[in-house]
Amino acid sequence: VERLSDIGEFALIERLKEIFGAETAPYVEIGIGDDAAVLNLTPGARLVVTTDALIEDVHFVLDRIEPRVLGRRAVAANLSDIAAMGARPRCAFVVLGLRPHANVDYVLEIARGMAELALEYDARIVGGDITRSPNALSLTLTVIGETTDGLLTRSGARPGDAIMVTGHLGGSAAGLGIAANPSVGVSMSRKEVDALLKRHNDPTPRVREGIALAGAGLATSAIDVSDGLAGDLRHICEMSRVGASIDPEKIPIDRSTHLAAGWLGQDAIALALTGGEDYELIFTCPADGTDAARAAIAPTPATEIGVITDEPGLRLVGASAPRYERYLRSFDHFKR
Amino acid sequence: VERLSDIGEFALIERLKEIFGAETAPYVEIGIGDDAAVLNLTPGARLVVTTDALIEDVHFVLDRIEPRVLGRRAVAANLSDIAAMGARPRCAFVVLGLRPHANVDYVLEIARGMAELALEYDARIVGGDITRSPNALSLTLTVIGETTDGLLTRSGARPGDAIMVTGHLGGSAAGLGIAANPSVGVSMSRKEVDALLKRHNDPTPRVREGIALAGAGLATSAIDVSDGLAGDLRHICEMSRVGASIDPEKIPIDRSTHLAAGWLGQDAIALALTGGEDYELIFTCPADGTDAARAAIAPTPATEIGVITDEPGLRLVGASAPRYERYLRSFDHFKR
Predict the structure, then answer these.
(1) pTM, whole model, 2 decimals?
(2) Lesser CB count within 10 Å: N end or C end of chain B?
(3) Cα(B144)–Cα(B51) distance, rounded to whole angstroms?
């Protein structure tokens, strides 16, 4: 018998694509394989739809996150996929998998967090389902967004394009490490610790930035960082049929991530390459378009970390390249 | 501490409505509380969206259903909600919660069943997510439909309207009973047993019937039977601010459901009132419109079982009414 742990998440997705994509429909502009699906159901309307689940003890640990923040995070993870398409989030649908003895106040706090974060991006939670889930709390969201002008996909990167990253990477993984080892953070200031924990628990989806890049037609491709820079950049390369060359020392990493990584006995650049859940955007743009792209998303910073190449695959350049070769594999939920 | 099992599913939904519905948006025509949400994102386009989860050992037992049939059922349950709004299903999104050691062929068979049933109703599976779920297989679907003409809601029933039911009720509960007690079915013909098992495992969503009723403006309200006739008709009463009076002996129940109920030591009418998951449509129409409604959905039968009343609440009439009073409560996933 072939087990999921033998073939991994991405091979399974390839096989599902064959099954689900066997019959096409004219209204499906983009199906499985990008950050979200794009539908043209009505002329003039382009819907962008994504769905994503958070499961207890897989994506979060109950005692380490406030319920309100957990609700915010579930919505943020989905809005990040809408942002990576350059669309405007509109409506969210929530399936809550709950234990029969769940604390009602706890559940309502999750809901308040969801409503709150959705509203910050002018989206509304308009439907859902409640179901019994005896073994684990689960939060499954579907978000519908729309765009009338541009669209960011994973498939438009061209050789010579600059590779850019918004904000800073590795902070979510560092925050996760601190949450799991609270004593580690003691030598950092409370403010720095809280900022890192927030990076993991309560990330900021780059909705405004995605819309700005798509609207101005400044980016040739984009993806959000959910599996780690290496894995997600590799998705752009595969979908665009190009390669990428990046300098690990150019990856934007802030001071507290460096500090936390040191205390955790880890390497901050490795955390950025493999850590995931930073929910920043990786995007590509013409080499002469980096200033315009930076201006469009300011004050959020964007850092150039490399270049798209003809030769397929992901390569590291620069003095520290050899040290990070082994972090180029991508995270797989199943494969060991 | 207040537990979910103290207040139940429906009280929780009321509280979630307050939280999620606190801020309205002009594009939300129908939010939480109907079979699906209705969105007017673009002028001229009316989207109908529903989401629903099937969880192992809550909604199905692995050894009692073929994976392909399980996939069909997950899609059918969601299409039924689209049907109850009178809309045309278009796209489905699937979140698969899988164990790391899941058998890949088994998962692909589920996917084939999903694709197959969706295609039978001209819908496509266009996106989704795969996540690790260590304790239970879960299938969460979101379906987007659209309608350019009519819409069926839970809120339009008027006193004097006839209460109609498509097909036959109780068959799903009888099939579930037989699946759990295989020896019971031995005295029925194989064909009858298989038909009942199909009613539970592989139900038929009434998509064509819902579209026909909505398109011709023949029904004043509708809901699909997922929690049992009593509970679901009560939802129409509450949303329409009316009451209902039905004769239990008029509930359409077929011969094999009666037989199976007898063998199981249960009452077929009680199964119809409380059993749920028949995925037939309950709809209301003007008293002089029952023939037109029947003609619109033929050859699927529709049976008149009662009348909408001014007085709120659900009442039974006829000779056997006293025997079934105790089956008027609705199924709650949490409350005991």
Answers:
(1) 0.94
(2) C
(3) 9
Distance in angstroms (rounded) separating the CA atoms of residues B293 and A209: 52
What does residue B17 show for φ and ψ, rounded to 5 degrees?
-55, -40
Supply B154's token pair.
């839970």
Asked, as a colleague might, if the bond just before B299 is cis with ω within 30 of 0, I would say yes
The residue with tokens 């309307």 is A45
Write out chain B residues lying below 8 Å of A29, CB-based. Answer: none
> Residue A282 above 80 pLDDT?
yes
The bridge status of strand B124-132 relative to strand B88-98 is parallel
Is the bond leading into B203 cis (omega within 30 degrees of zero)? Answer: no
Rounded distance, CA B168 to CA B269, Å? 11
Q: A15 to chain B: nearest residue by CA?
A: B108
pLDDT for the residue numbered A330: 61
Please judge whether A104 and B4 are an interchain contact, meaning their C-beta atoms are less than 8 angstroms apart: yes
Contact A28 B124 (CB under 8 A): yes
Give the C-alpha separation, A6 to A113, whole Å.
37
Structure tokens at A91: 């409506």
Q: What is the largest CA-CA distance in chain B?
A: 58
Q: Is the ipTM of this complex over 0.90?
A: yes
How are beta strands A28-30 and A243-246 bridged, if at all? unpaired
Query: What letter would DSSP give residue B146?
Result: E
What token pair was written down for B332? 């709650």
B72 membership: H or E segment, kind and range: helix B67-83
- Crossing angle for the helix pair B67-83 and B104-120, nearest 10 degrees? 30
Task: Mention every residue, 6+ apart, whose C-beta is less than 8 A from residue A46.
Answer: A29, A38, A39, A40, A87, A146, A147, A148, A151
Contact assignment for B28 to A58 by CB distance below 8 Å: no
Residues of B in contact with A24 (CB under 8 A): 124
Q: pLDDT per residue over B40-82, tens digit each?
A: 988 777 999 999 999 999 999 998 899 999 999 999 999 999 9
- Are B166 and B184 spatial neighbours (Cβ–Cβ below 8 Å)? no
**Neighboring chain A residues of B127 at a CB cutoff of 8 Å:** 31-32, 36-37, 49-51
Taking alpha carbons only, the member of B98, B113, B107, B93 closest to residue B51 is B93
Residue A66: both structure tokens together:
């406030």
- Look up residue B36 and give its amino acid: A
Residue B323 CA, distance from chain mean position = 25
| B102: helix, strand or coil | coil
Q: CA–CA distance from A1 to each of A4, A6, B259 (Å)?
A: 10, 10, 40
Q: What is the C-alpha to C-alpha distance for residues B62 and B295, in angstroms, rounded to an integer?
A: 40
Contact state of A55 with B107 under an 8 Å Cβ cutoff: no
